[in-house]
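PT: before anyone asks, these are the final sequences, not the draft ones from last week. 806 residues across everything. Please model them as a single complex and drop the result in this thread when it's through.
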Amino acid sequence: MAKSSSTDAVTLIRSLRSAYAATPTNLKIIDLYVVFAIATALIQWIYMGIVGSFPFNSFLSGLLSCVGTAVLAVCLRIQVNKENKEFKDLAPERAFADFVLCNLVLHLVIMNFLG
Amino acid sequence: MPGRGIIILLALIWSSLSICTASVVRPISEAHRSAALELFVPFDGSFGSLEDIYASFRTLEILGLEKTQDVSDVACKSVVDKLGSPSSTTKDLFYALKVNSILRCQTETIKFEEIASKLQTVLKSASCLPDFYYSIGSLLLIKNHGFEVLLSDAAGTFQSIKALSQSDGKWRYDSSSAESSNYAAGMALEALAGVVSIADSEVDKSMIGVVKNDIVKLFDSIKSYSDGTLYFDDKYVHTNDYRSPLEISASVIRGVTAFAEVASGRVNIPGNKVLGVAKLFLSLGVPGTIKDLFHQIEALSCLENNRIYIPLIISLPATVLSLTSQDQLKVDVTSVFGVPAPPLTVKLLQATNSNSDGKPNIENQELYFDQENSIHYLDIASLKVDVGKYNLIFEASLHDPVDEKKYTTGGRTSFSAFFTGSIQIDKAELAILNSDGDSIETIESLDLSKDSSLSLSANHLQTFRLSFQPTTPLGHTFKPHQVFLKLRHETNVEHIFLIESSARQYKLTLDFLGLVEKFYYLSGKYDLELFVGDAIMENSFLRTLGLVELDLPEPPEKAPQAPPQPIDPYLRYGPKEEIRHIFRSPEKRPPKELSLAFFALIFLPLLGFLIGLVRLGVNLKLFPSTPGPVAFSLLFHSGIASVLLLYGLFWLKLDLFTTLKILSFLGIFLVFIGHQTLSRLASTSSKVKSS
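LR: through. Structure below.
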């Protein structure tokens, strides 16, 4: 049983990998961006865990900027993905423009809150 | 026998009523004269109305003081204006004439006969009291100035004024008003006196007699203050109409004395009432305003030479007499202005010590008269009286029986006086007793005429005793008001004890066992000081007796600490203790190395992102190549970059407002550019797709 489960897991990962390879490049860029943002958030979280949350506003603004930008990237990915039937009529450039605008607003607020 | 008891009681009541207790009254003195000169100053450049000017000048005239020339000139000018003007009221004319009679202004141009005839016509049609008062008064003044003035229908005028009187002796201002007042009575009586003076034929004696009765009725309703002075007062409705009892009493006295001058026969007012009113004016001391001073001085000058009774004031120049320096008891009897009285004898009826149960110590002593200084005196030292506070009762009797009808001395007058002397302290001794109460550990006798420096010691089980006997010069027991013993520790902690008196001696017993807590368990040397003092003692003293070394047990844990002793009061001007501020301690910051390490660590994901991009095969193929779109694209990217730069600057040094201002410009620019770029990109990609 264990052997079959481990082989099942390996097969699962392999199939995931091959399926993922089929995604278009621009989606992969967005995915990479999201991973980058989350990793940065994680490092900030670990730092806070070590030194304490003294300038709490700074911690929050840093963390939320990473999380916020990741969320916006995910929204972009949804809108740009051709396989999404809901957003068939939305031009990807339009989605990108939204992404840029929202990011700029987010970062203005973040900069204000950073202190 | 109850009958005898009642008679004695009644006699006591009657005698207490007939004694007038004097407040401090002294005749008019230099203090009044200097006050008059000080108060006679202009207010806002002018001296007020003619009425005020008259009041000031009359005060100075009575007191015999000179007026300054320039003030007289200003006043005279005002007088001449008022007398010459045809529109002046009778009140203005009255006061102008009054001032003129004092100052004797240059009035050659004034036609007094015309004024007199005008006043006569006013008088014929007068119906209210002020009209009568001012017109009659003015006519009288014109007559005194040297002109012929005769009132034709004197009896009629007299009756009209009399008609305004009430049954209680007061007068109304006119026939329609319901309120009567004493002030109006004074005015009316003065007016009636004026009528009698300027009448062309003699006024009927019966009418004068009726008015004399009115005066007696007026004095029946006189009021008295608790110190025995008498005054007149009126009710008032508006505060504008308020007149003080001083003003009202002065008005009544003026009217009554004026009428008594012109009336034949006596006015039956008892002498003690006249004296009571005189004392009212004298007990004011020196008033603070010129108006009050005027009322006081004018009323007293009316009383000084009146035909009813001239008051004679008995007063004591000094009320504290020393037996050691053999002071004499001096008594002054003068008129209200300090003029010496006619020949009389002053008798000290009684002198009672306040603590001798009412039995008089001196009785029926006649005082000797010093001709040169016009003062009556008595040598008390020879009478062998003791020290103390005395109640003295005097009576003055005039030698000439004629004088007794002219003057009044007020019967018996009582005063308080202090006879001081030197008190001797006998049998003073200090003892330390053992705990069994009786056996004496140490005993020392004291000489309290000088400081001593004894040295005793005691422990908390023993008792301290101080005793002494104060005696008067005649050998009686004396109880001083203040008898204290003070114990002061080396650390300046003080304890004060009151020394109680028993039958003959003063004794203080301190049981240290009970006082251990009061002394805060402080052992050590205590300085002893004794205070004995009284108003009657000429030799009140504060003596150091020495010191006592006290041995008290150790304080328990919760014993109260001695209060901190006051520091030298001058130390408050020295430098103060430095204040140490406690700031909020800064938060603990992580060590620098850790922060820098994580700062470096943050760039790792970015690096990973870039590497991943390269691995994915990112390229810039779709970047436009034609110049137009190139420019737009470049501008787009630089726009975004500049916004991010702005954010960086915002974090570093800009404030929100500047940032938003710049951002608004950049934003509009970026939106425009972005729209252009992206729409172009969209159109090219859709073209590619469709093709």
